[in-house]
Design goal:
heterodimer, A: 375 residues, Methylamine Dehydrogenase, Chain H, 2 domains, four-stranded antiparallel β-sheet, 29 strands, globular, B: 424 residues, mainly beta, Ubiquitin-like (UB roll), six-stranded mixed β-sheet, 2 helices, binds magnesium ion, repeat (chain B), ribonucleoprotein complex binding (chain B), rRNA processing (chain B)
């Protein structure tokens, strides 16, 4: 008689895999609707959140203080801070297709502000030299300069009018390009915008399937496109399909790429989390089923060997996820903590999560109108 | 070792350094199940006190928090020998004295015994001075954004200098007149490229140091900028209406020494109590650093793998206490070369420890403020906290504490400067 447990390789104990977030430390009070999205600045001092209460709020992370509130006329679908530390800028998607670039007041240094303005001015200049008629003809959607009062008072820099609601905004690491996903916009579902040129491109003439999420590769000119069933990897320079990842799930909800670039996690509405090792296979290296309801978001930590998933079951699962330089050694995946606290409201739980850029902390937002820091 | 029973007696010798409470030093028998209160009764009896004085008891430098027999078992000490017990007058539980209402969250609190004033910084971008009777004697308007830290500078019979730092990335030096309660901006310091999170003034009151989210620490002389450099003038637009001009020109100080080394935001800075050329800092990079100001070099770096939120040094022992994001207070010997020189960890808070402050009168005692909404008083000879100050059902975070003479000041989200009597 062999004890079946003895055949399973022993995983390290969570306490030997510290640090990782273990308890709620700060709650950010103010929103009165679902908080679908938020984003941390690249230093990790401030964060912006977007809610169904039609406001965007700016927070001081370490104190819980709300520093600013913007009121819009639609729900906030997605929000993303520009990753370039020398700039002070974020992009927000509101209502039925409006994407606005905003320089938040109060927090940027004079150097950051002037560099951001220069960046934006460069775009206006590029547009006018190209001849505005010509440019508008080439851009599938218009770039509109906000009025002076909105620029001054609210920090608005540019409006981009999409044809359908934009469900995701994601930046390229250098902060010049960003991609938007408007799943219902047919051949304009995925757009790539360049600030310094005021240019929008539709990189895919024909898209198979409903696009859920996209992401730039952290180091190479590759672009990930997740539809309901597949993740396709494209080379943007060569404009060719490199790889198709077969998730095996019914409906992908979320996607993140490991900072090393060779591993991808995918979350699904059918409760699964798939880890792909791109060097290994086009099928999942591991499929994890820890949540009892749909997964809404998955994310890697940029510095610590951690990843996490957020679910409509109200919990956040924290995993140790170690990627080795040695190509022969498979990634080590160990569940280390379940964070509970969010209330499930109308079958919706935790809607967004993001790790702190420098600390082993995670922020979460939910259908219960709450935004929380776990440390 | 034989277990001590209820009826058992142990032989002890009481000693004290407080000569006014000295009793016989000969060994006496006491019941082994006695705790602090029983022992206190014996000492009071021997002193012949009608009105008992509460005492605390130390064995081998550690405060007794159990019965004698439990202590002996826990520390594997034989009950056959005479046990030497030192006693000290107990600190009384802190009692609330008053609370001064503000309009917004309080980020920083300070007291200054000599001028009989309290100082607060608030998220409404105001710096306020309060007298002992709870009157706000001055509201210093000048910052364009939340005030993050305040400190008292030099004080004479007529004037008090005050420093404040802000999210607006500047530092302002103010002069407040005790004669007519007027104030003026002496100068504004510019150079930081992020929120200025902390300010500290050295013992000589000739310089002050600031710590910023921009990862730098700057040390400034207190002199008027005109004595250091060519003066620039800056218009500070006052948000609130003023009877005089809506804009005022202020001198700008930009000459300073910059201490570079922290990777990420610096949350706290203090000067060494004895040597104004040394500053200690802590930050988000998990390090506690000491710096040589003149040389502008980082002398030592101690790491603890947790975010450092505040640093304080005892003027009695020179030990440094730090508050952290992992709920722990750490005690360090700043002179030790050892990179991991944590002498002690104090645990009890249930959330971030945002602020720490030593008692000015005891080398063993400090207080702390936490996001768990409590202020705690600690004796480093005891493992747990001595006292916990918390208003019922209160959930407000505390951002700042200061042990000023016999008072503990605290402030935070509840918008009140809370003052407790805390005599040692
Ligand atoms: Mg996000």
């Amino acid at each position: 008689n062999i004890d079946p447990d003895s055949l399973i390789p022993k995983l390290p104990s969570p306490k030997d895999l510290q640090p990782f977030p273990t308890q709620q430390s700060i709650s950010y009070e103010g929103h009165t609707g679902r908080i679908r999205c938020f984003s941390l600045d690249p230093v990790g001092l401030y964060m912006i959140s977007g809610s169904d209460d039609q406001t965007v709020r700016l927070w001081e992370i370490s104190t819980g203080r709300c520093l600013n509130t913007w009121t819009f006329d639609g729900v906030i679908h997605s929000i993303a801070w520009n990753p370039n530390r020398e700039l002070c800028l974020f992009a927000v998607s509101v209502g039925h297709g409006n994407v606005t670039l905003i320089t938040p007041p109060r927090i940027g240094s004079p150097e950051q502000i002037s560099l951001t303005d220069e960046y934006i001015q460069q775009g206006y200049a590029a547009m006018s030299t190209a001849g505005s008629d010509d440019k508008e003809a080439r851009n599938p959607i218009p770039w509109v300069k906000p009025n002076a009062a909105d620029q001054e008072k609210l920090g608005y820099r540019v409006h981009l009018s999409h044809t359908q609601a934009v469900k995701q905004i994601t930046w390229h690491r250098k902060g010049d390009y960003f991609a938007t996903v408007a799943p219902d916009a047919k051949n304009l579902a995925v757009l790539i915008h360049q600030i310094t040129k005021y240019q929008t491109q539709a990189p895919f003439r024909k898209l198979k399937g409903l696009v859920q999420r996209v992401m730039f590769h952290p180091t190479k000119p590759l672009f990930f496109v997740a539809t309901q069933l597949y993740v396709r990897v494209y080379n943007l320079m060569k404009q060719e399909l490199i790889k198709t990842l077969q998730s095996g799930v019914k409906w992908i909800s979320s996607l993140d790429v490991h900072p090393g670039g060779d591993n991808v996690i995918v979350g699904s509405y059918d409760k699964r989390l798939c880890w792909f090792d791109l060097d290994l296979s086009a099928r999942p290296y591991k499929t994890l089923r820890y949540h009892s309801q749909a997964i809404r978001q998955v994310t890697f930590h940029r510095r610590y060997p951690l990843f996490a998933s957020a679910s409509d079951d109200g919990s956040i699962q924290i995993f140790h996820g170690m990627v080795y330089n040695d190509l022969l050694q498979n990634p080590l995946i160990v569940p280390v903590k379940i964070l509970r606290g969010h209330q499930v409201v109308n079958s919706l739980g935790v809607l967004d999560i993001e790790f702190h850029p420098t600390q082993p902390w995670i922020v979460s937002s939910g259908a219960d109108h709450s935004l929380r820091l776990w440390t | 070792m034989a277990e001590t029973t209820e009826s058992e007696q142990v032989q002890v010798r009481f000693t004290t350094q407080q000569q006014q409470y000295a009793i016989t030093e000969s060994a006496i028998f006491v019941p082994a199940n006695f705790k602090r209160y029983g022992l206190s009764g014996i000492v009071n009896h021997l002193l012949g006190n009608d009105k008992p004085i509460p005492f605390d008891f130390l064995i081998n430098g550690e405060l007794l928090r159990t019965s004698l027999s439990q202590y002996l078992v826990a520390n594997n000490v034989s009950s056959e020998n005479v046990i030497s017990i030192e006693y000290v007058e107990s600190m009384l539980p802190p009692t609330p004295v008053s609370a001064f209402q503000h309009d917004d969250w309080i980020s920083s609190v300070k007291g200054q015994q000599s001028s009989q004033l309290f100082l607060t910084g608030s998220y409404d971008s105001m710096v306020r001075l309060w007298n002992m009777s709870g009157e706000c004697v001055a509201t210093l308007e000048g910052h364009a954004d939340a005030v993050k830290s305040v400190a008292f500078g030099a004080a004479t019979d007529n004037e008090v200098v005050v420093y404040s730092t802000s999210l607006d990335q500047t530092v302002i030096a103010w002069e407040y007149s005790l004669v007519d309660s007027s104030y003026r901006v002496l100068y504004q310091c510019k150079g930081h490229k992020g929120s200025v999170e902390a300010v500290a003034v050295d013992q000589t009151k000739k310089k002050f140091a600031t710590a910023s989210a921009d990862a730098t620490v700057k040390v400034w002389g207190v002199k008027d900028p005109s004595e250091e450099q060519s003066i620039e003038f800056l218009d500070i637009k006052n948000k609130k209406r003023r009877k005089t001009d809506s804009t005022e020109s202020h001198k700008v100080k930009s000459f300073c020494q910059t201490l570079n080394g922290h990777v990420g935001p610096v949350t706290s800075v203090i000067f060494d109590n004895k040597d104004s050329n040394i500053v200690y800092t802590g930050g988000w990079d998990h390090s506690i650093r000491s710096w040589d100001v003149e040389q502008q070099v980082n002398v030592t770096t101690k790491n603890c793998e947790k975010v450092v939120l505040d640093v304080a040094q005892s003027n009695q022992s020179k030990m440094v206490a730090t508050g952290h994001g992992d709920k722990i207070i750490r005690i360090w010997d700043p002179r030790a070369d050892d990179a991991i020189a944590v002498s002690m960890s104090l645990t009890g808070h249930t959330n971030w420890v945002s602020s720490v402050s030593w008692s000015p009168n005891s080398e063993y005692t400090l207080c702390s403020g936490s996001y768990d909404s409590t202020v705690r008083v600690w004796d480093i000879r005891s493992k747990g906290s001595l006292f916990t100050i918390q208003e019922e059902d209160k959930k407000d975070k505390i951002y700042s504490v200061h042990w000023d003479g016999d008072k503990i000041l605290s402030g935070g989200e509840d918008k009140k400067l809370n003052i407790h009597q805390a005599k040692i």
